[in-house]
């Protein structure tokens, strides 16, 4: 399921999920970092949930049904 597309900043985000697990993937195809807000409410991640950046192992927080990522 597509969560976010941003052609200007070369960002694409999608989600995969089943009955017990959810994952949101954000891809940056640019040469510079960008901050993005991903609408994780589309995959039923509730407000206040903590998610983990599995590449950098940073903890991110969902706020108002969106997940804010930087870098």
What do these coordinates show?
This protein has a single domain (2-69), classed as Immunoglobulin-like. Helix content is 0%, strand content 48%. The chain has no helices and 7 strands. It has strands at residues 2-6, 11-17, 22-28, 36-38, 50-52, 59-63, 66-69. It is globular, with a radius of gyration of 12 Å.
Which terms would index this structure?
three-stranded antiparallel β-sheet; Immunoglobulin-like; 71 residues; globular; four-stranded antiparallel β-sheet; mainly beta; 0% helix
CATH architecture: Sandwich
Alpha-beta content class: mainly beta
Side by side, the strands of the main sheet go 4-7-6-5
The CA-CA distance between the termini, in Å, is: 23 Å
Total discrete domains: 1
**DSSP helix count?**
0
Annotated CATH topology: Immunoglobulin-like
Q: Number of DSSP strands? A: 7
What is the subunit arrangement here?
single chain
Give the helix/strand layout.
Elements: E1 2-6, E2 11-17, E3 22-28, E4 36-38, E5 50-52, E6 59-63, E7 66-69
Antiparallel strand pairs: 1-2, 2-3, 4-7, 5-6, 6-7
Summarize the structure.
Helices cover 0% and strands 48% of the residues. With 71 residues, it is mainly beta.
């Amino acid at each position: 399921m597509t969560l976010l597309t941003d052609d200007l900043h070369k960002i694409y985000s999608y989600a995969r999920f089943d009955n017990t697990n959810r994952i949101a993937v954000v891809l940056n195809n640019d040469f510079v970092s960008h901050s993005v807000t991903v609408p994780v409410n589309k995959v039923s991640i509730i407000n206040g949930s903590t998610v983990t950046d599995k590449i950098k192992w940073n903890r991110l927080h969902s706020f108002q049904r969106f997940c804010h990522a930087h870098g």
